[in-house]
Amino acid sequence: MTQYSLTLTGELLPGADRAVAVTVLAAMLKLPAPQAESLLNGRPRTLRGPLSAAAAEQVRRRCERAGVVALVRPWSTTAAAAPATASEVWARPSRFEVAAPTKRCPNCGEEQPEADLCRRCGIVFAKFGLARPALPTARAARASTSDAEFPFKVVTQLVLLVFLSSLGVALWSHWKKAQLPAPAFYDQAQLAAPRQTPTARQPFTVHAQGILYTIEPLYDYVLEAVVVSLHDSDVFWDIYHFKDWQDFINIRDLCVVWGANVRTDAFRAMSYSNTTWTCWVGPRNDPAAQWFAWDQLSNNHLLSADPQVQRAIKSAVIGDQIRLTGQLARYSHGGGFQRGTSTTRTDQGNGACETVYVERFEIIRPANPGWRLVYRLSLVLLWGALVGLVVLFFVAPVRGLRG
């Protein structure tokens, strides 16, 4: 009776699952998974025999179902040629007991050599990993470490606190810096009535933004007063000066008071506002308003083509005590525009404003310097905190902001 042996070629059938093949071989030969996997390294191995034809075919089919290529051969021709059985092969430490990396099974915790299957519980590591959350990548680990090292949440809260605080301080200081100081703040000796004297200066011309203006001086003029309201002629909504009139030398209107109005504190009992060519004045329901002297108030259209004088005029704010020198004047340009000036402090209504060509402008006492400084600093902090919040919004991890 002919007997047979089974030879594993070390190959898999096309489309076979290697993990399944290793599991079947390990169970069939009672071998650890790493040893069973080594039988699929492309080298032929002859299993122990002899087997009957039926037994050999049964084992071959079982291997085939697992995707392992196996050959049935007569025992008489293979036994002598076979260098060792599978069991004998595993007994040779010189070939198979080389130290190898180990891994811990995520399911049962068994420490074992690197393999696709656990030798204890039989799970397929690759498939088991699909059911578990993915391990953090190196980049995620660095981000997590960075997140732990840098307190994004605390920093964001501090920057937000600075932003809200500076916003509140900016609003409050903006209101405070525009308040009129008490009479004691001012140098009353320099708040006399304006001095108006005949001028010897002849008409002259100046250029501004391509326009030639003719200035006709009428009187030399010195004004010392307190600014109570103002209007910049270059604001975007003032279409009269720049579009309709092409008036580029009337850079600012200042509404001012002097004399008894400041000395008796009557000026703080009134409200003031400026529009394009008018200063509007009214009482605040304060008894001191009855002492207000209307001939100690004027609205002044200030002219200048000198950049240095223009900057000085633009630097004045409400509450400042100022001094200006120049000429009360009429002016015009070739486009048909012309404007006159009042020459008395007792007139009211249309035409009562003084038009002054300014040669020198000084701020004698700036009002509320402390509140102005607080306002500037609060704006710096406000914008700095806003930039910080924007940066944190883009660079801080979501967890750091919400945690």
Describe this protein's structure.
The chain is α+β, with helices and mostly antiparallel strands and 403 residues long. It folds into three domains: 4-98, Ribosomal protein L7/L12, C-terminal domain/Adaptor protein ClpS (Ribosomal Protein L30, Chain: A, 2-Layer Sandwich), CATH 3.30.1390; 152-177 and 372-402; 183-367, no CATH class. The chain has helices at residues 18-29, 33-38, 53-65, 75-78, 86-90, 93-96, 125-130, 138-149, 152-177, 239-244, 260-263, 307-315, 369-395, 398-402, and strands at residues 4-12, 45-46, 68-74, 102-104, 111-113, 195-198, 204-208, 211-232, 250-257, 270-274, 279-283, 297-303, 321-333, 338-339, 354-365. The protein is rod-shaped.
Chain-wise SSE layout:
Elements: E1 4-12, H1 18-29, H2 33-38, E2 45-46, H3 53-65, E3 68-74, H4 75-78, H5 86-90, H6 93-96, E4 102-104, E5 111-113, H7 125-130, H8 138-149, H9 152-177, E6 195-198, E7 204-208, E8 211-232, H10 239-244, E9 250-257, H11 260-263, E10 270-274, E11 279-283, E12 297-303, H12 307-315, E13 321-333, E14 338-339, E15 354-365, H13 369-395, H14 398-402
Parallel strand pairs: 12-15
Antiparallel strand pairs: 1-2, 1-3, 4-5, 6-8, 7-8, 8-9, 8-13, 9-12, 10-11, 13-14, 13-15
Helix pairs in contact: 9-13
Kindly state the mean pLDDT as a whole number? Answer: 82
Oligomeric grouping of the chains:
single chain
End-to-end separation: 79 Å
Number of helices: 14
In short:
With 403 residues, the protein is of the alpha+beta class.
